[in-house]
Design brief:
The protein has 442 residues and is of the alpha+beta class. It has a domain of 65 residues: ATPase, nucleotide binding domain (Nucleotidyltransferase, domain 5), CATH 3.30.420.40. It contains eleven helices and 18 strands. The strands form five sheets. The protein has a five-stranded mixed sheet with strand order 3-2-1-6-11. A hairpin with a 3-residue loop joins strand 1 and strand 2. Helix 1 packs across helix 3, helix 6 crosses helix 7 and helix 8 crosses helix 9. The longest helix is centred in the C-terminal third of the chain and has 36 residues.
């Protein structure tokens, strides 16, 4: 597979999407192929049937390969699911020599210290995101590198997940004959696809309503501040329609998509849908008012749970106020009148997030649907990872050349400026660990 092409694999509860994309000459994302299959082995974002999941992955990948006319070997995958939780933690280190300026190693030492936090059995830290630093008690420092100080402390946003669930995802990818190129948190991927930098600065809550789970990511001052996964999504709404109207799941899903609304007041009492009965039985008549009452009850429940998380983050404090409000994305965000309902419950400005922020202008409208926000985000993430690799390789080559030159020339006193190497994110390290585990498990 050529270098500037990346593949995102979104393993969801209702669908698995494989998306192939590359950057065009204008730096925008061009989608070359997309494949989707029904997700059979995933429940609430967690793989619970390896064989079925492998088949679904292969089907989606083959469809994407056929559309793009190329072979896929490596993928960037998103992890989500009800096992993911986040916590706030502050930690500090005392530097042995405050005469020297703070450098990368000090920050790595501090971050590694957070990794020693004791977790519940089977849980592991997935992501450690520094929020802000304090140097010798001076607060609100965004970037402490280059400063003098003896005590370096920071507040961290720590994301925790079940390591076995992540390994199962890795296992499925490996068994589907694909390489695992990177792992990303799904709420972060969706955020990359639908949010603008201005929104992240102003403060925004991204709500990604999927089939099995609803993911929340809160940004303020350009930094992610809070993440949460709520174990309900579009499926519970379908389930309720199925129960409430005594119809089969397929019909319930269609009803929801075609006639569903999150606001019961919209429908008149005399609006009725007729549904064919099962084999020789009478057709069923369902009033749209009843349908939206069922949907409304469930949606309110999901939105209220999300709102509790937004309040937990501290949205009501002036300093933490989310000026850009809420952005809804994911398949569940396409429900009619959902935006109005969310505004009504939370009192916050709301918009639907389409992943067209980074897409090339001539992209097919299917791709710009909120359904594919996570997949687009994963493709972007894969491309970013490739760019980082390129820079690191160049830096290494330059260093090798410099060393050879230095050996050839007589020694002269000179000050060298080190090229800035981007800090490896913990997700990169996690990807490597999952790969090692899979390689040794064979």
């Amino acid at each position: 597979m050529e270098h500037n092409i990346s593949v995102g694999l979104d393993i969801g509860t209702t669908k698995i999407v494989a998306m192939i994309g590359r950057k065009n000459d204008y730096g925008k994302l061009e989608i070359l192929g997309i494949g989707k299959s029904k997700s059979l082995g995933v429940h609430r974002g967690v793989v619970n049937n390896i064989t079925q999941t492998i088949q679904s992955i292969q089907q989606a990948v083959q469809e994407a390969e056929a559309a793009a006319g190329m072979k896929i070997d490596g993928v960037t995958v998103g992890i989500a699911g009800q096992h993911i939780r986040s916590l706030q933690h502050s930690d500090y280190i005392t530097r042995p020599n405050s005469e020297l300026v703070i450098d990368e190693d000090d920050i790595d030492r501090l971050i590694n210290q957070v990794h020693k936090l004791v977790m519940l059995p089977g849980e592991e830290i997935i992501h450690v995101l520094p929020q802000e630093y304090k140097v010798d008690g001076q607060a609100e420092i965004k970037e402490p590198i280059g400063m003098y100080g003896g005590r370096l402390e920071a507040n961290f946003h720590v994301v925790v997940g079940q390591v076995s669930s992540i390994r199962n995802v890795g296992r499925c990818i490996q068994s589907a004959d694909l390489n695992l190129e990177g792992i990303t948190l799904e709420p972060l991927a969706s955020a990359n696809a639908v949010l603008s930098q201005e929104e992240k600065e102003a403060g925004v809550a991204l709500i990604d309503i999927g089939g099995g789970t609803t993911d929340l990511a809160i940004f303020k001052d350009g930094i992610i501040r809070h993440t949460a996964v709520i174990p309900f999504g579009g499926n519970v709404i379908t389930e309720d329609i199925k129960e409430g109207c005594s119809i089969i799941e397929k019909q319930a899903e269609l009803l929801k998509i075609k006639f569903g609304s999150a606001w019961p007041g919209e429908n008149k009492d005399n609006e009725i849908v007729s549904i064919p009965g099962l084999r020789g039985r009478e057709p069923k008549e369902i009033t749209l008012k009843n349908l939206s009452k069922i949907i409304h009850a469930r949606v309110v429940e999901i939105v209220e749970q999300v709102y509790v998380e937004i309040k937990n983050y501290g949205h009501e404090e002036q300093k933490k106020n989310l000026i850009a409000g809420i952005v809804l994305t994911g398949g569940g965000s396409q429900l009619k009148h959902l935006k109005q309902l969310v505004e009504y419950i939370t009192g916050m400005d709301t918009r639907i997030g389409y992943p067209n922020e980074h897409l090339a202008g001539d992209s097919h409208e299917d791709v710009t649907s909120p359904l594919f926000a996570t997949a687009v985000g994963l493709v972007l993430d894969g491309l970013k990872r490739q760019e980082r690799k390129k820079i690191e390789e160049q830096v290494e080559e330059e260093q090798v050349e410099d060393t050879t030159e230095a050996q050839e020339q007589p020694a002269e006193e000179e000050i060298k400026v080190e090229p800035v190497k981007e800090r490896r994110s913990f997700l990169d390290k996690l990807t490597d660990r999952v790969k090692d585990f899979l390689d040794n498990a064979e």
